[in-house]
């Protein structure tokens, strides 16, 4: 098929990036990509989903990956996978000869290997410029689950109605389950046999870049994992601190050791992000040089500075995110056309070993198998958000009282960057707003 035909299938079936921010996948299809990458690096500690899904559906995902490469005219298709994922690599090798265009690139067990910019450099040697898009370097990156959703849309004519989610840490039986979009986090956690601590905290996403969620929050297309943690866990405590106090702590105890910058993955790739300079300027309210503030726009919020590097347990990532958000609200755009400096020669010695990262964050005891279960979890009600992706929210096309079937489009793509949203269970529409649609089984 041609690019426009595949784009239409992806948009109408609601396919978005399942591993990150939910960027509509159809917009990544372009004949400017000479290389496409499959991201199977999990990025964060404790996440098991992508390696399991790729192992179980290796042929289907590789076939789809090769089809996307052929559609856009890419010269090479590279699967970036951590070398420790031995079972998944074995599954890939069983089919690799059928796809001459596809190659496997083994990655080290370091964080944040799953970061798009880091992965592109590791697999191709190309550096995406600060604030730039991968396609500027002729590269398009696709997540494992995203490609599986493309397979289901193209081969099985099924839209995105469900999500694979790993439930780990303080639960009876860590597990990776398949759930309807719009079910609650509590319903997902229940599949792991219940929690093992009093007053558990649901940490949605990975331990480095995740957020604290409520049990009633709905699962979306970007919900990859739920970490059930005790309320006094170091990760939870860090998330609950306030920025005003973080800034005062920085002013009083930052020793200007520069470790946050030394270990910053983007800084080591030549990007002009310098957490140490920012902390010095912000904590002293020094505005003579505005570059440390303006360059906060290039922070990826990976959390290495805050969760691993800083010996004083300060919060550079949080303060940088606040600054970045403040600049955006003020209408100040990131500097345009910034070119990266040469990659730091010391970069190879400043990678963060994932095993050491887990130990430092008190997560080693939670590093257990979370077996993948393919049977769809049955729920009685779903709250399907109309904005589960970057871009304009989908526009509801159903009304209260309508009967819908699983897979039926309930919100069409809006003008501009948008994708369709579908019913994730069969039942009756009980609520429609500009933000969500609620469906209850009869």
UniProtKB/TrEMBL annotation:
<keyword id="KW-0411">Iron-sulfur</keyword>
<keyword id="KW-0813">Transport</keyword>
<dbReference type="InterPro" id="IPR019554">
    <property type="entry name" value="Soluble_ligand-bd"/>
</dbReference>
<keyword id="KW-0004">4Fe-4S</keyword>
<dbReference type="InterPro" id="IPR037225">
    <property type="entry name" value="Nuo51_FMN-bd_sf"/>
</dbReference>
<dbReference type="InterPro" id="IPR010208">
    <property type="entry name" value="Ion_transpt_RnfC/RsxC"/>
</dbReference>
<protein>
    <submittedName>
        <fullName>NADH-quinone oxidoreductase subunit J</fullName>
    </submittedName>
</protein>
<keyword id="KW-0408">Iron</keyword>
<dbReference type="Pfam" id="PF01512">
    <property type="entry name" value="Complex1_51K"/>
</dbReference>
<keyword id="KW-0677">Repeat</keyword>
<dbReference type="Pfam" id="PF13534">
    <property type="entry name" value="Fer4_17"/>
</dbReference>
<keyword id="KW-0249">Electron transport</keyword>
<dbReference type="InterPro" id="IPR017896">
    <property type="entry name" value="4Fe4S_Fe-S-bd"/>
</dbReference>
<dbReference type="InterPro" id="IPR026902">
    <property type="entry name" value="RnfC_N"/>
</dbReference>
<dbReference type="Pfam" id="PF13375">
    <property type="entry name" value="RnfC_N"/>
</dbReference>
<dbReference type="Pfam" id="PF10531">
    <property type="entry name" value="SLBB"/>
</dbReference>
<dbReference type="InterPro" id="IPR011538">
    <property type="entry name" value="Nuo51_FMN-bd"/>
</dbReference>
<dbReference type="GO" id="GO:0016020">
    <property type="term" value="C:membrane"/>
</dbReference>
<dbReference type="InterPro" id="IPR017054">
    <property type="entry name" value="PduS"/>
</dbReference>
<dbReference type="GO" id="GO:0046872">
    <property type="term" value="F:metal ion binding"/>
</dbReference>
<feature type="domain" description="4Fe-4S ferredoxin-type">
    <location>
        <begin position="290"/>
        <end position="319"/>
    </location>
</feature>
<keyword id="KW-0479">Metal-binding</keyword>
<dbReference type="GO" id="GO:0009055">
    <property type="term" value="F:electron transfer activity"/>
</dbReference>
<dbReference type="GO" id="GO:0051539">
    <property type="term" value="F:4 iron, 4 sulfur cluster binding"/>
</dbReference>
């Amino acid at each position: 098929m041609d690019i426009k035909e595949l784009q239409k299938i992806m948009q109408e079936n609601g396919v978005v990036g399942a591993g990150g921010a939910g960027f509509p996948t159809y917009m990544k299809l372009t004949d400017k990509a000479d290389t496409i990458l499959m991201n199977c690096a999990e990025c964060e500690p404790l996440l098991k989903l992508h390696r399991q899904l790729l192992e179980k559906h290796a042929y289907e995902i590789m076939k789809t990956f090769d089809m996307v490469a052929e559609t856009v005219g890419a010269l090479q298709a590279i699967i970036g996978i951590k070398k420790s994922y031995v079972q998944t690599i074995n599954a890939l090798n069983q089919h690799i000869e059928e796809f001459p265009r596809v190659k496997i690139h083994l990655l080290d067990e370091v964080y944040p290997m799953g970061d798009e910019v880091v992965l592109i450099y590791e697999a191709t040697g190309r550096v995406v410029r600060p604030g730039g898009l991968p396609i500027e370097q002729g590269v398009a990156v696709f997540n494992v689950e995203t490609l599986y959703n493309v397979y289901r849309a193209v081969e099985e004519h099924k839209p995105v109605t469900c999500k694979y989610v790993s439930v780990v840490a303080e639960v009876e039986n860590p597990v990776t389950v398949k759930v309807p979009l719009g079910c609650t986090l509590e319903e997902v956690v229940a599949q792991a046999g219940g929690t093992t601590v009093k007053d558990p905290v649901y940490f949605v996403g990975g331990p480095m870049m995740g957020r604290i969620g409520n049990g009633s929050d709905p699962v979306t297309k970007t919900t990859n994992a739920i970490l059930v943690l005790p309320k006094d866990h170091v990760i939870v405590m860090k998330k609950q601190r306030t920025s005003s106090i973080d800034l005062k702590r920085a002013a009083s105890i930052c020793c200007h050791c520069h470790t946050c910058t030394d270990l910053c993955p983007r800084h080591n790739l030549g990007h002009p992000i310098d957490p140490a300079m920012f902390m010095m300027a912000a904590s002293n309210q020094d505005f003579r040089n505005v570059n440390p503030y303006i360059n906060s726009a290039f922070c990826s919020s990976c959390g290495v500075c805050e969760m691993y590097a800083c010996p004083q347990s300060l919060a550079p990532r949080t303060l940088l995110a606040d600054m970045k958000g403040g600049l955006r609200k003020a209408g100040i755009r990131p500097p345009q056309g910034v070119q990266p400096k040469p990659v730091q020669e010391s970069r190879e010695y400043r990678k963060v070993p994932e095993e050491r990262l887990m130990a430092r964050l008190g997560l080693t005891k939670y590093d257990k198998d979370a077996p993948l279960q393919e049977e769809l979890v049955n729920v009685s009600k779903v709250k399907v958000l109309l904005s589960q992706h970057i871009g304009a929210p989908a526009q509801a096309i159903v009304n209260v009282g309508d009967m819908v079937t699983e897979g039926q489009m309930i919100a069409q793509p809006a003008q501009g960057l948008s994708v369709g949203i579908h019913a994730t269970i069969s039942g009756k529409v009980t609520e429609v707003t500009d933000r969500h649609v609620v469906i209850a089984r009869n």
